[in-house]
Amino acid sequence: MKSDRIKNWPKEERPRERLLAEGAEKLTEAELLAIILRVGQGTFKQGMLGQNASDFARTLLKDFHGLRGLDRAHVQDLLKVPGLGPAKVAQIKAAFELGKKICAGKLTAPSFESSQAIANHFRPRFKGKRQEIVTAVFLNGQNQRLGVKAITEGTPTQATVYVRRIIEEALRLSAAAMVLVHNHPSGNPEPSAGDDETTRDLLNACKLVQLVLLDHMIIGETEYYSYSDTGRLKDLENE
């Protein structure tokens, strides 16, 4: 009995469609590998026996004793497997290597442990800018950077901050905390009434999703203002 083509499966059962609809974490190792393989082994033409990508992935995992064995397998050994050509072997090895690079990156992720560290990091980015640029820095529980998102650019005097966009990005990254950073093109980092309003709105939004707003920083020409260091963040939180 031949194995059925994946394209003949109900759409909600196909690995690629399931990944897009439910998230990669919901898929088994074989289903994830099947997506990388894209096509299976052998042929379905003229009633001949073939394996779809999902069945082929399960066979590979069994023959090589799981993902770890597949990762350790030499390229030449993989190329000996019927149905694994240079393109598929390269895709498999590239996927494993990407995973390793992500893990290595997490171990060395830059951390922002002080307002000074954040100011030193962002001042060169803002230097010479004639408009306000609002940037959100998303952090994990160890204050390691998960991502940086430029939220908006505004006029030379004020940028409109979209709190909803900030929260959506934080949730997408599964961030535990964040820091809002923006520049004052005038060079004077003292906060305006609009800056206070933005901070207050963001504090309220963060509370709803259990996200910690660690600071709102304003970068000037040579100095910076930290809502956290000055105690202003706590004052706004207690209002």
What does this structure look like?
The protein has helices spanning 15-22, 29-37, 53-63, 66-72, 75-79, 86-107, 115-126, 163-173, 193-208, 232-237, and strands at residues 41-42, 50-51, 133-139, 145-153, 177-183, 212-219, 224-226. The strands form two sheets. It has a five-stranded mixed β-sheet, with helices on both faces. A two-stranded antiparallel sheet has the order 1-2. By secondary structure, it is of the alpha+beta class. Mean pLDDT is 85; it is low at 44-48. α2 (29-37) crosses α3 (53-63) and α3 crosses α4 (66-72). It folds into two domains: 6-107, no CATH class; 115-237, Cytidine Deaminase, domain 2, CATH 3.40.140.10. β3 (133-139) and β4 (145-153) form a beta hairpin. It has ten helices and seven strands. Helix content is 45%, strand content 16%. It starts with 14 loop residues before the first helix and ends with a helix.
Share of helical residues: 40-55%
Number of structurally distinct domains: 2
Figure out the total of helices.
10
Largest β sheet strand count, sense and barrel closure: 5 strands, mixed
Proportion of strand residues: 15-25%
Question: What coarse outline follows from CA principal-axis ratios?
Answer: elongated
Determine and state the CATH class of the largest domain. Answer: Alpha Beta
How would you briefly describe this protein structure?
With 239 residues, the protein is an alpha+beta fold. It contains 10 helices and 7 strands. The chain has 2 domains: 6-107, no CATH class; 115-237, Cytidine Deaminase, domain 2 (3-Layer(aba) Sandwich), CATH 3.40.140.10.
